Amino acid sequence: MQRRKEKSRTEYTVRNFEIGVISQVVNIVLSFVVRTIFVKNLQESYLGVNGLFTNILTILSFAELGIGSAIIYSMYKPIADNDQEKIKTLMNLYKVSYRIIGIFIAVCGVALIPFLDVFIKNKPDIPESLVLIYLLFLSNTVLSYFWSYKKSIIIAVQKEYIINIYKILFYVIKSFLQILVLILWKNFILYLIVQLVCTFLENVCTSIQANRMFSYLKDKNVKKINESDKNKIFKNVRALTVYKFGSVILNATDNIIISAIVGITAVGILSNYNLIVTSLVAIISTALSGLTASIGNLNVTSTKENKEQIFYELFFILTWIYGFCSIGLIVLLSPFIELWIGSEYVMPFMSVLALVLHFYVNGVQFAGYTYRTTTGLFEKGKIAPIVAAILNIVLSLVLGRYMGVAGILFATSISRLLTTTWIDPYLVHKYQFKTSVIKFYRRYVINFIIVVVNCLACYVVTSMISNTVFGFILKVFILLLMANIIFLIAFYHSKEFKSVFLKIKNLFLNRFKILLSKIN
User: Fold this and answer.
1) Which site from 19, 57, 263, 498 is most exposed, i.e. has the minimal number of CB atoms within 10 Å?
2) With 80 as the cut, is the pLDDT of residue 242 above it?
Protein backbone atom coordinates (compact mmCIF):
# COMPACT_ATOMS: atom_id res chain seq x y z
CA MET A 1 0.00 0.00 0.00
CA GLN A 2 2.83 2.37 0.93
CA ARG A 3 4.59 1.71 -2.37
CA ARG A 4 1.40 2.48 -4.27
CA LYS A 5 1.08 5.82 -2.45
CA GLU A 6 4.69 6.67 -3.29
CA LYS A 7 4.01 5.81 -6.91
CA SER A 8 0.90 8.00 -6.96
CA ARG A 9 2.80 10.93 -5.49
CA THR A 10 5.47 10.55 -8.16
CA GLU A 11 2.93 10.26 -10.98
CA TYR A 12 1.00 13.34 -9.86
CA THR A 13 4.20 15.32 -9.28
CA VAL A 14 5.46 14.51 -12.79
CA ARG A 15 2.10 15.38 -14.38
CA ASN A 16 1.90 18.65 -12.43
CA PHE A 17 5.48 19.42 -13.42
CA GLU A 18 4.94 18.78 -17.13
CA ILE A 19 1.72 20.79 -17.50
CA GLY A 20 2.97 23.46 -15.09
CA VAL A 21 6.14 24.07 -17.08
CA ILE A 22 4.21 24.18 -20.36
CA SER A 23 1.81 26.65 -18.76
CA GLN A 24 4.60 28.93 -17.60
CA VAL A 25 6.54 28.74 -20.88
CA VAL A 26 3.40 29.86 -22.72
CA ASN A 27 2.92 32.53 -20.05
CA ILE A 28 6.48 33.82 -20.41
CA VAL A 29 6.50 33.91 -24.22
CA LEU A 30 3.21 35.78 -24.31
CA SER A 31 4.28 38.08 -21.44
CA PHE A 32 7.32 39.18 -23.42
CA VAL A 33 5.28 39.73 -26.57
CA VAL A 34 2.69 41.78 -24.65
CA ARG A 35 5.35 43.72 -22.70
CA THR A 36 7.28 44.53 -25.91
CA ILE A 37 4.12 45.89 -27.54
CA PHE A 38 3.24 47.66 -24.27
CA VAL A 39 6.61 49.48 -24.15
CA LYS A 40 6.38 50.44 -27.83
CA ASN A 41 2.82 51.77 -27.63
CA LEU A 42 2.50 53.25 -24.12
CA GLN A 43 4.83 55.58 -22.23
CA GLU A 44 7.18 54.40 -19.48
CA SER A 45 5.02 55.83 -16.66
CA TYR A 46 2.36 53.16 -17.22
CA LEU A 47 4.89 50.47 -16.25
CA GLY A 48 5.52 52.24 -12.94
CA VAL A 49 1.79 52.64 -12.23
CA ASN A 50 1.27 48.96 -13.01
CA GLY A 51 4.05 47.86 -10.63
CA LEU A 52 3.01 50.23 -7.83
CA PHE A 53 -0.68 49.30 -7.77
CA THR A 54 0.17 45.60 -7.96
CA ASN A 55 2.27 45.97 -4.80
CA ILE A 56 -0.40 47.94 -2.94
CA LEU A 57 -2.99 45.25 -3.64
CA THR A 58 -0.55 42.51 -2.63
CA ILE A 59 -0.37 44.19 0.77
CA LEU A 60 -4.18 44.32 0.95
CA SER A 61 -4.24 40.56 0.34
CA PHE A 62 -3.01 40.29 3.92
CA ALA A 63 -6.75 40.17 4.70
CA GLU A 64 -6.70 36.53 3.51
CA LEU A 65 -5.19 35.88 6.96
CA GLY A 66 -3.78 32.47 6.02
CA ILE A 67 -7.21 30.85 6.03
CA GLY A 68 -6.45 29.11 2.73
CA SER A 69 -3.24 27.51 4.02
CA ALA A 70 -4.88 26.40 7.28
CA ILE A 71 -7.86 24.80 5.53
CA ILE A 72 -5.76 23.10 2.82
CA TYR A 73 -3.59 21.62 5.60
CA SER A 74 -6.78 20.41 7.34
CA MET A 75 -7.92 18.70 4.12
CA TYR A 76 -4.87 16.44 3.64
CA LYS A 77 -6.10 13.79 6.09
CA PRO A 78 -9.82 13.73 5.06
CA ILE A 79 -8.74 13.49 1.41
CA ALA A 80 -6.41 10.58 2.25
CA ASP A 81 -9.34 8.96 4.12
CA ASN A 82 -11.92 9.93 1.43
CA ASP A 83 -14.03 11.60 4.16
CA GLN A 84 -16.42 13.51 1.88
CA GLU A 85 -18.54 14.93 4.69
CA LYS A 86 -15.56 16.58 6.33
CA ILE A 87 -14.28 17.87 2.98
CA LYS A 88 -17.70 19.46 2.30
CA THR A 89 -17.66 21.09 5.72
CA LEU A 90 -14.17 22.51 5.23
CA MET A 91 -14.94 23.78 1.72
CA ASN A 92 -18.09 25.52 2.99
CA LEU A 93 -16.05 27.24 5.68
CA TYR A 94 -13.54 28.21 3.00
CA LYS A 95 -16.30 29.67 0.77
CA VAL A 96 -17.88 31.78 3.51
CA SER A 97 -14.49 33.01 4.76
CA TYR A 98 -13.27 34.01 1.30
CA ARG A 99 -16.43 35.93 0.48
CA ILE A 100 -16.13 37.91 3.70
CA ILE A 101 -12.46 38.56 2.88
CA GLY A 102 -13.34 39.73 -0.65
CA ILE A 103 -15.78 42.28 0.73
CA PHE A 104 -13.26 43.40 3.37
CA ILE A 105 -10.53 43.94 0.74
CA ALA A 106 -12.97 45.93 -1.40
CA VAL A 107 -13.82 48.24 1.51
CA CYS A 108 -10.17 48.71 2.55
CA GLY A 109 -9.13 49.22 -1.06
CA VAL A 110 -11.66 51.98 -1.59
CA ALA A 111 -10.63 53.58 1.72
CA LEU A 112 -7.04 53.88 0.40
CA ILE A 113 -8.04 56.03 -2.60
CA PRO A 114 -7.54 59.42 -0.83
CA PHE A 115 -3.97 58.38 0.06
CA LEU A 116 -2.74 57.30 -3.39
CA ASP A 117 -0.69 60.51 -3.81
CA VAL A 118 1.37 59.54 -0.74
CA PHE A 119 2.78 56.49 -2.57
CA ILE A 120 3.78 58.39 -5.73
CA LYS A 121 6.78 60.75 -5.54
CA ASN A 122 6.22 62.25 -8.98
CA LYS A 123 2.71 61.97 -10.39
CA PRO A 124 2.89 60.38 -13.87
CA ASP A 125 1.86 62.49 -16.85
CA ILE A 126 -0.92 60.27 -18.20
CA PRO A 127 -4.43 61.27 -19.35
CA GLU A 128 -6.29 58.49 -17.52
CA SER A 129 -7.55 58.85 -13.97
CA LEU A 130 -5.25 57.12 -11.47
CA VAL A 131 -8.32 56.39 -9.34
CA LEU A 132 -10.04 54.55 -12.21
CA ILE A 133 -6.87 52.55 -12.94
CA TYR A 134 -6.57 51.65 -9.25
CA LEU A 135 -10.24 50.57 -9.06
CA LEU A 136 -9.72 48.20 -12.00
CA PHE A 137 -6.72 46.64 -10.22
CA LEU A 138 -8.80 46.40 -7.04
CA SER A 139 -11.73 44.75 -8.84
CA ASN A 140 -9.39 42.17 -10.38
CA THR A 141 -8.18 41.23 -6.89
CA VAL A 142 -11.58 41.24 -5.17
CA LEU A 143 -13.52 39.18 -7.72
CA SER A 144 -11.11 36.25 -7.49
CA TYR A 145 -12.04 35.65 -3.85
CA PHE A 146 -15.60 34.73 -4.78
CA TRP A 147 -14.68 31.72 -6.94
CA SER A 148 -11.00 30.81 -6.67
CA TYR A 149 -11.35 29.04 -3.30
CA LYS A 150 -12.40 25.86 -5.15
CA LYS A 151 -8.93 25.62 -6.65
CA SER A 152 -7.75 24.50 -3.22
CA ILE A 153 -9.34 21.04 -3.34
CA ILE A 154 -7.91 20.39 -6.82
CA ILE A 155 -4.46 21.32 -5.49
CA ALA A 156 -4.92 19.25 -2.32
CA VAL A 157 -5.65 16.08 -4.34
CA GLN A 158 -2.39 16.69 -6.27
CA LYS A 159 -4.09 17.57 -9.60
CA GLU A 160 -2.85 21.12 -10.03
CA TYR A 161 -2.20 20.40 -13.70
CA ILE A 162 -5.95 20.84 -14.31
CA ILE A 163 -5.77 24.42 -12.99
CA ASN A 164 -2.76 25.08 -15.21
CA ILE A 165 -4.63 23.93 -18.32
CA TYR A 166 -7.25 26.62 -17.65
CA LYS A 167 -4.46 29.13 -17.02
CA ILE A 168 -2.94 28.42 -20.43
CA LEU A 169 -6.29 28.81 -22.19
CA PHE A 170 -7.24 32.11 -20.60
CA TYR A 171 -3.74 33.56 -20.72
CA VAL A 172 -3.65 33.01 -24.48
CA ILE A 173 -7.06 34.68 -24.85
CA LYS A 174 -6.08 37.57 -22.56
CA SER A 175 -2.74 38.18 -24.32
CA PHE A 176 -4.32 38.15 -27.79
CA LEU A 177 -6.99 40.67 -26.74
CA GLN A 178 -4.50 42.92 -24.92
CA ILE A 179 -2.23 42.99 -27.97
CA LEU A 180 -5.18 44.06 -30.10
CA VAL A 181 -6.07 46.80 -27.60
CA LEU A 182 -2.48 48.12 -27.47
CA ILE A 183 -1.99 48.14 -31.26
CA LEU A 184 -5.41 49.42 -32.33
CA TRP A 185 -6.36 51.81 -29.51
CA LYS A 186 -3.25 52.27 -27.29
CA ASN A 187 -5.66 52.34 -24.35
CA PHE A 188 -4.47 51.32 -20.87
CA ILE A 189 -8.01 51.23 -19.43
CA LEU A 190 -9.20 48.71 -22.04
CA TYR A 191 -6.00 46.75 -21.42
CA LEU A 192 -6.93 46.42 -17.74
CA ILE A 193 -10.59 45.58 -18.49
CA VAL A 194 -9.46 42.65 -20.65
CA GLN A 195 -7.32 41.43 -17.73
CA LEU A 196 -10.26 41.75 -15.34
CA VAL A 197 -12.71 39.83 -17.55
CA CYS A 198 -10.27 37.00 -18.30
CA THR A 199 -9.33 36.58 -14.63
CA PHE A 200 -13.02 36.39 -13.74
CA LEU A 201 -13.80 33.79 -16.44
CA GLU A 202 -10.79 31.64 -15.51
CA ASN A 203 -11.92 31.49 -11.87
CA VAL A 204 -15.52 30.67 -12.82
CA CYS A 205 -14.45 27.87 -15.19
CA THR A 206 -12.10 26.40 -12.57
CA SER A 207 -14.94 26.47 -10.05
CA ILE A 208 -17.24 24.61 -12.49
CA GLN A 209 -14.49 22.03 -13.08
CA ALA A 210 -14.13 21.47 -9.32
CA ASN A 211 -17.90 20.83 -9.10
CA ARG A 212 -17.61 18.26 -11.90
CA MET A 213 -14.70 16.46 -10.24
CA PHE A 214 -16.24 16.52 -6.77
CA SER A 215 -19.98 16.48 -7.34
CA TYR A 216 -20.62 16.17 -3.62
CA LEU A 217 -19.49 19.81 -3.24
CA LYS A 218 -22.85 20.85 -4.77
CA ASP A 219 -24.70 19.07 -1.97
CA LYS A 220 -26.60 21.65 0.12
CA ASN A 221 -26.71 19.30 3.08
CA VAL A 222 -23.46 20.33 4.77
CA LYS A 223 -22.71 19.51 8.38
CA LYS A 224 -21.67 22.31 10.68
CA ILE A 225 -17.98 22.19 11.56
CA ASN A 226 -17.40 20.75 15.04
CA GLU A 227 -15.86 22.92 17.75
CA SER A 228 -12.64 20.89 17.94
CA ASP A 229 -11.88 21.26 14.21
CA LYS A 230 -12.93 24.91 14.21
CA ASN A 231 -10.70 25.75 17.17
CA LYS A 232 -7.78 23.91 15.58
CA ILE A 233 -8.21 25.71 12.23
CA PHE A 234 -8.60 29.16 13.76
CA LYS A 235 -5.65 28.58 16.06
CA ASN A 236 -3.61 27.97 12.90
CA VAL A 237 -5.26 30.98 11.24
CA ARG A 238 -4.23 33.24 14.13
CA ALA A 239 -0.64 32.08 13.78
CA LEU A 240 -0.74 32.42 10.01
CA THR A 241 -2.21 35.92 10.28
CA VAL A 242 0.90 37.13 12.05
CA TYR A 243 3.16 35.20 9.68
CA LYS A 244 1.36 36.34 6.54
CA PHE A 245 1.29 39.98 7.62
CA GLY A 246 5.05 39.97 8.02
CA SER A 247 5.57 38.10 4.72
CA VAL A 248 3.37 40.52 2.78
CA ILE A 249 5.15 43.57 4.20
CA LEU A 250 8.51 41.91 3.51
CA ASN A 251 7.74 40.99 -0.11
CA ALA A 252 5.41 43.71 -1.32
CA THR A 253 6.85 47.02 -0.13
CA ASP A 254 9.88 47.36 -2.43
CA ASN A 255 8.05 49.10 -5.28
CA ILE A 256 6.18 51.38 -2.88
CA ILE A 257 9.42 52.49 -1.16
CA ILE A 258 11.23 52.85 -4.51
CA SER A 259 8.35 54.98 -5.81
CA ALA A 260 8.42 57.18 -2.70
CA ILE A 261 12.24 57.57 -2.47
CA VAL A 262 13.60 57.21 -6.02
CA GLY A 263 10.54 57.83 -8.23
CA ILE A 264 7.92 55.96 -10.20
CA THR A 265 10.15 55.84 -13.33
CA ALA A 266 12.58 53.63 -11.42
CA VAL A 267 9.68 51.30 -10.60
CA GLY A 268 8.92 51.08 -14.33
CA ILE A 269 12.53 50.21 -15.25
CA LEU A 270 12.71 47.64 -12.44
CA SER A 271 9.42 46.14 -13.62
CA ASN A 272 11.07 44.94 -16.86
CA TYR A 273 13.67 43.06 -14.82
CA ASN A 274 10.96 41.79 -12.49
CA LEU A 275 9.00 40.48 -15.48
CA ILE A 276 11.91 38.19 -16.32
CA VAL A 277 12.68 37.21 -12.73
CA THR A 278 9.04 36.57 -11.79
CA SER A 279 8.55 34.58 -15.00
CA LEU A 280 11.47 32.40 -14.01
CA VAL A 281 10.13 32.10 -10.46
CA ALA A 282 6.75 31.14 -11.90
CA ILE A 283 8.24 28.28 -13.93
CA ILE A 284 10.19 26.94 -10.96
CA SER A 285 7.30 27.48 -8.54
CA THR A 286 4.88 25.71 -10.87
CA ALA A 287 7.26 22.79 -11.17
CA LEU A 288 7.69 22.68 -7.40
CA SER A 289 4.12 23.47 -6.36
CA GLY A 290 3.08 19.97 -7.37
CA LEU A 291 5.42 18.79 -4.62
CA THR A 292 3.55 20.67 -1.88
CA ALA A 293 0.51 18.37 -1.81
CA SER A 294 2.81 15.36 -2.23
CA ILE A 295 4.90 16.48 0.76
CA GLY A 296 1.68 17.06 2.70
CA ASN A 297 0.66 13.50 1.89
CA LEU A 298 4.16 12.24 2.76
CA ASN A 299 4.06 13.96 6.15
CA VAL A 300 0.90 12.11 7.21
CA THR A 301 2.00 8.68 5.95
CA SER A 302 5.80 8.42 6.29
CA THR A 303 8.53 8.02 8.94
CA LYS A 304 10.58 10.96 10.25
CA GLU A 305 13.73 9.43 8.70
CA ASN A 306 12.13 9.37 5.26
CA LYS A 307 10.81 12.91 5.72
CA GLU A 308 14.30 14.15 6.57
CA GLN A 309 15.87 12.36 3.62
CA ILE A 310 13.36 13.89 1.19
CA PHE A 311 13.89 17.32 2.82
CA TYR A 312 17.63 17.28 2.09
CA GLU A 313 17.09 15.96 -1.42
CA LEU A 314 14.64 18.81 -2.03
CA PHE A 315 17.13 21.35 -0.64
CA PHE A 316 19.83 19.96 -2.95
CA ILE A 317 17.51 20.27 -5.99
CA LEU A 318 16.61 23.84 -4.99
CA THR A 319 20.28 24.80 -4.64
CA TRP A 320 21.10 23.51 -8.12
CA ILE A 321 18.03 25.03 -9.80
CA TYR A 322 18.11 28.44 -8.10
CA GLY A 323 21.91 28.53 -8.15
CA PHE A 324 22.04 27.89 -11.89
CA CYS A 325 19.25 30.38 -12.59
CA SER A 326 20.91 33.03 -10.39
CA ILE A 327 24.15 32.67 -12.35
CA GLY A 328 22.16 32.95 -15.57
CA LEU A 329 20.45 36.13 -14.36
CA ILE A 330 23.74 37.77 -13.33
CA VAL A 331 25.33 36.95 -16.70
CA LEU A 332 22.38 37.43 -19.07
CA LEU A 333 19.75 39.72 -17.52
CA SER A 334 21.08 43.17 -18.45
CA PRO A 335 22.43 42.07 -21.87
CA PHE A 336 18.96 40.67 -22.64
CA ILE A 337 17.22 43.91 -21.56
CA GLU A 338 19.60 45.91 -23.77
CA LEU A 339 18.92 43.72 -26.84
CA TRP A 340 15.19 43.54 -26.10
CA ILE A 341 14.09 47.14 -25.42
CA GLY A 342 17.26 49.27 -25.39
CA SER A 343 20.18 50.37 -23.20
CA GLU A 344 18.10 53.17 -21.59
CA TYR A 345 16.21 50.45 -19.68
CA VAL A 346 19.36 48.82 -18.24
CA MET A 347 19.83 49.03 -14.44
CA PRO A 348 23.23 49.41 -12.67
CA PHE A 349 24.99 46.11 -11.93
CA MET A 350 24.63 46.54 -8.16
CA SER A 351 20.83 46.72 -8.49
CA VAL A 352 20.84 43.56 -10.63
CA LEU A 353 23.03 41.80 -8.05
CA ALA A 354 20.63 42.78 -5.25
CA LEU A 355 17.62 41.56 -7.25
CA VAL A 356 19.27 38.19 -8.00
CA LEU A 357 20.40 37.71 -4.39
CA HIS A 358 16.78 38.01 -3.25
CA PHE A 359 15.73 35.57 -5.98
CA TYR A 360 18.20 32.98 -4.65
CA VAL A 361 17.59 33.51 -0.92
CA ASN A 362 13.83 33.40 -1.35
CA GLY A 363 13.99 30.37 -3.67
CA VAL A 364 16.10 27.98 -1.61
CA GLN A 365 13.90 28.73 1.42
CA PHE A 366 11.14 26.68 -0.24
CA ALA A 367 12.25 23.45 1.47
CA GLY A 368 11.99 24.80 5.01
CA TYR A 369 8.83 26.78 4.35
CA THR A 370 7.00 23.90 2.65
CA TYR A 371 7.86 21.38 5.34
CA ARG A 372 6.83 23.82 8.08
CA THR A 373 3.43 24.55 6.51
CA THR A 374 2.61 20.98 5.43
CA THR A 375 3.41 19.62 8.90
CA GLY A 376 1.12 22.15 10.56
CA LEU A 377 3.83 24.13 12.40
CA PHE A 378 1.84 27.34 11.95
CA GLU A 379 2.11 28.49 15.57
CA LYS A 380 5.88 28.04 15.69
CA GLY A 381 8.02 30.87 14.36
CA LYS A 382 5.04 33.07 13.54
CA ILE A 383 6.86 36.21 14.70
CA ALA A 384 9.81 35.73 12.30
CA PRO A 385 8.23 37.49 9.28
CA ILE A 386 7.13 40.40 11.50
CA VAL A 387 10.73 40.90 12.63
CA ALA A 388 11.85 40.52 8.98
CA ALA A 389 9.26 43.09 7.83
CA ILE A 390 10.35 45.67 10.41
CA LEU A 391 14.01 45.08 9.53
CA ASN A 392 13.16 45.37 5.83
CA ILE A 393 11.40 48.73 6.17
CA VAL A 394 14.11 50.22 8.38
CA LEU A 395 16.97 48.93 6.21
CA SER A 396 15.14 49.94 2.98
CA LEU A 397 14.70 53.52 4.19
CA VAL A 398 18.34 53.74 5.31
CA LEU A 399 20.04 51.89 2.44
CA GLY A 400 17.63 53.40 -0.11
CA ARG A 401 18.86 56.91 0.77
CA TYR A 402 22.49 55.95 0.11
CA MET A 403 22.27 53.20 -2.54
CA GLY A 404 18.93 53.87 -4.26
CA VAL A 405 17.17 50.88 -5.79
CA ALA A 406 20.05 48.50 -4.94
CA GLY A 407 19.87 49.38 -1.24
CA ILE A 408 16.12 48.76 -1.06
CA LEU A 409 16.50 45.37 -2.78
CA PHE A 410 19.49 44.35 -0.62
CA ALA A 411 17.44 45.20 2.48
CA THR A 412 14.87 42.52 1.61
CA SER A 413 17.51 39.79 1.29
CA ILE A 414 19.31 40.81 4.49
CA SER A 415 16.02 40.83 6.42
CA ARG A 416 15.11 37.36 5.17
CA LEU A 417 18.58 35.91 5.84
CA LEU A 418 18.49 37.15 9.44
CA THR A 419 15.07 35.62 10.16
CA THR A 420 12.95 33.15 8.15
CA THR A 421 15.88 31.59 6.27
CA TRP A 422 17.23 29.93 9.42
CA ILE A 423 14.07 29.73 11.58
CA ASP A 424 11.94 27.52 9.28
CA PRO A 425 14.59 24.75 8.98
CA TYR A 426 15.23 24.96 12.75
CA LEU A 427 11.54 24.37 13.52
CA VAL A 428 11.27 21.47 11.08
CA HIS A 429 14.37 19.76 12.48
CA LYS A 430 13.34 20.29 16.10
CA TYR A 431 9.68 19.26 15.90
CA GLN A 432 9.57 16.88 12.93
CA PHE A 433 12.96 15.26 12.37
CA LYS A 434 14.07 15.43 16.05
CA THR A 435 17.66 16.05 14.86
CA SER A 436 20.17 18.91 15.01
CA VAL A 437 19.76 21.71 12.46
CA ILE A 438 23.48 22.57 12.50
CA LYS A 439 24.16 20.25 9.55
CA PHE A 440 21.58 22.18 7.51
CA TYR A 441 23.18 25.56 8.28
CA ARG A 442 26.60 24.14 7.36
CA ARG A 443 25.18 22.75 4.10
CA TYR A 444 23.50 26.09 3.33
CA VAL A 445 26.75 28.05 3.68
CA ILE A 446 28.80 25.53 1.67
CA ASN A 447 26.21 25.45 -1.11
CA PHE A 448 26.10 29.26 -1.24
CA ILE A 449 29.90 29.46 -1.55
CA ILE A 450 29.76 26.91 -4.42
CA VAL A 451 27.14 29.04 -6.20
CA VAL A 452 29.21 32.25 -5.73
CA VAL A 453 32.43 30.64 -7.04
CA ASN A 454 30.51 29.16 -9.98
CA CYS A 455 28.98 32.56 -10.72
CA LEU A 456 32.35 34.36 -10.66
CA ALA A 457 33.88 31.81 -13.04
CA CYS A 458 30.98 32.04 -15.50
CA TYR A 459 30.85 35.85 -15.31
CA VAL A 460 34.58 36.24 -16.02
CA VAL A 461 34.41 33.93 -19.06
CA THR A 462 31.20 35.36 -20.58
CA SER A 463 32.15 39.02 -19.96
CA MET A 464 34.76 38.68 -22.72
CA ILE A 465 31.99 38.15 -25.30
CA SER A 466 30.40 41.22 -26.95
CA ASN A 467 26.67 41.83 -26.51
CA THR A 468 25.30 41.05 -29.95
CA VAL A 469 22.52 38.58 -30.73
CA PHE A 470 25.14 35.96 -31.67
CA GLY A 471 27.23 36.84 -28.62
CA PHE A 472 24.19 36.48 -26.35
CA ILE A 473 23.40 33.02 -27.76
CA LEU A 474 27.05 32.03 -27.28
CA LYS A 475 26.87 33.17 -23.64
CA VAL A 476 23.79 31.00 -23.12
CA PHE A 477 25.55 27.89 -24.45
CA ILE A 478 28.70 28.55 -22.39
CA LEU A 479 26.57 29.09 -19.30
CA LEU A 480 24.58 25.88 -19.81
CA LEU A 481 27.75 23.83 -20.06
CA MET A 482 30.09 25.59 -17.66
CA ALA A 483 27.73 26.23 -14.72
CA ASN A 484 26.30 22.71 -14.72
CA ILE A 485 29.73 21.06 -15.07
CA ILE A 486 30.99 23.02 -12.04
CA PHE A 487 27.91 21.98 -10.05
CA LEU A 488 28.41 18.37 -11.15
CA ILE A 489 32.02 18.39 -9.96
CA ALA A 490 31.03 20.02 -6.64
CA PHE A 491 28.06 17.76 -5.82
CA TYR A 492 28.96 14.48 -7.53
CA HIS A 493 29.98 12.62 -4.36
CA SER A 494 27.11 13.87 -2.19
CA LYS A 495 24.46 11.45 -0.93
CA GLU A 496 21.66 13.71 -2.20
CA PHE A 497 23.06 13.83 -5.73
CA LYS A 498 23.29 10.04 -5.94
CA SER A 499 19.77 9.55 -4.58
CA VAL A 500 18.15 12.21 -6.81
CA PHE A 501 20.06 11.00 -9.88
CA LEU A 502 18.87 7.42 -9.27
CA LYS A 503 15.24 8.55 -8.89
CA ILE A 504 15.39 10.62 -12.08
CA LYS A 505 17.00 7.75 -13.98
CA ASN A 506 14.34 5.28 -12.78
CA LEU A 507 11.58 7.75 -13.59
CA PHE A 508 12.76 8.19 -17.18
CA LEU A 509 13.29 4.45 -17.61
CA ASN A 510 9.75 3.73 -16.39
CA ARG A 511 8.23 6.36 -18.67
CA PHE A 512 10.28 5.02 -21.59
CA LYS A 513 8.98 1.49 -20.91
CA ILE A 514 5.39 2.79 -20.79
CA LEU A 515 5.94 4.60 -24.11
CA LEU A 516 7.36 1.44 -25.71
CA SER A 517 4.44 -0.66 -24.46
CA LYS A 518 1.98 1.81 -26.00
CA ILE A 519 3.81 1.71 -29.35
CA ASN A 520 3.86 -2.10 -29.35
Assistant:
1) 498
2) no
